[in-house]
Specification:
This protein is mainly beta and 69 residues long. It contains one helix and five strands, in the order βββββα. The chain has one domain. The protein has a five-stranded antiparallel β-sheet with strand order 4-3-2-1-5. The radius of gyration is 11 Å and the shape is globular. The two termini are 20 Å apart.
């Protein structure tokens, strides 16, 4: 299966994002790595560019479901 979801982790603050194949933020973890991912509703304005982040894990559909449980 194609791993279309990617985890991005900040280099300076403890925050993580999960994006889809197109780079749209789907889930956010404000207390990475101890917290859990919550669905991002888009109400909070976040400047997300890949320069301040490094790529973490990659997920396919089933792996993403297991991570969110």
């Amino acid at each position: 299966m194609n791993k279309g979801f990617k985890e991005w982790i900040s280099t300076d603050i403890r925050i993580g994002y999960i994006t889809n194949f197109f780079g749209r933020i789907l889930y956010i973890n404000d207390n990475w790595p101890n917290g859990s991912y919550t669905r991002w509703d888009g109400k909070k304005r976040i400047k997300f560019n890949k320069l301040g982040y490094y790529k973490g894990r990659s997920f396919n559909d089933m792996e993403l479901i297991l991570e969110l449980l």
